[in-house]
Amino acid sequence: MVEQRTPFIAGNWKMNLDHLQAIAFVQKLSWSLSDAKHDFSQVEVAVFPPFTDLRSVQTLISADKLELGFGSQDVSQHDSGAYTGEISGNFLARLDVQYAIVGHSERRQFHGETDAVVGAKAAAAVRHSIVPIICVGETAEDLAEHGPSAVPVAQLREVLSSLSADADIVVAYEPVWAIGSGKAATAEQAEQVCSALRETLVELLGEERATATRILYGGSVKSENIARFMREPNIDGALVGGASLAIEEFSRIIQFKKHVGV
Ligand SMILES: O=C[C@H](O)COP(=O)(O)O
Predict the structure, then answer these.
(1) ipTM passes above 0.90
(2) How many Cα neighbours within 13 Å face the side chain of 124?
């Protein structure tokens, strides 16, 4: 991990916690981090609740002046109009949403999102000053057929073709076979792909932007394995699913520096 990039721990709640549960969760998480004297300038933290929770989370964070960030799990590629069920980046920006996850493998798998759609969604986020967290990652079949880096790198190239080189982005490498499986990639496997993604960023965005861009690892991250990932030079944080729903566990992941002296 290069110190000039602030580590970032992002909690993707997926389709869990309604808006009342979200309020209780954010309060307890902030108490836990406050008790631990967490320094948000050293490790940035954001939660990604379902759309219906965003207003409640925004109100709480703003009223209590919490340093916790928040984002959405998706964003429409369209800004307004006859797109039933879609949520515009414009609406999200009005709720102070800072980040939008785009191209999560569950969107690709269950909603047929292609790299072109993911690119359009990333561009929509950028239009509204929301930082897209661009998810890439290979399935077990991709891994067997093409090796570790080919598919994630190809996905990143395609998505970045929709963005200008100066767009502020975060990249999340999530091997599909590691998501929710309890079988995380090894730190070496994750670093190998994240290093290839960094090289792709250098080629497409230039050295300076590539060096400033954070690359997260996601897939069965827990408090017992986070430190291994954070020791790698091209891994700048984690996109956490299941473990982000347990306050004490998520809090331990966030405080990885204290527990292992990274
Ligand atoms: O967005 C988060 C990822 O899909 C990882 O989920 P997981 O930590 O439950 O494996």
Answers:
(1) yes
(2) 24
Residues 6+ apart with CB under 8 A from 35: none
d(CA 251, CA 95): 25
Residue of minimum CA distance from atom 6 in ligand 1: 241
103 annotated as ligand-binding:
no
Partners of residue 12 on adjacent β-strands: 48
Query: Average pLDDT of the chain?
Result: 96
242 Cβ below 6 A of ligand 1: yes
Q: Which CATH architecture has domain 8-260?
A: Alpha-Beta Barrel (3.20)
**Among 8, 13, 14, residue to substitute to test ligand 1 (most atoms within 8 Å of Cβ):** 14
Distance 243 CA to ligand 1 centre (A): 8
- CA-closest residue to ligand 1 atom 7: 241
- CA separation for the pair 222, 242 (Å, rounded): 9
The model's pTM:
0.97
Strand partners for 3: none
Closest CA to 97 of 61, 63, 121: 61
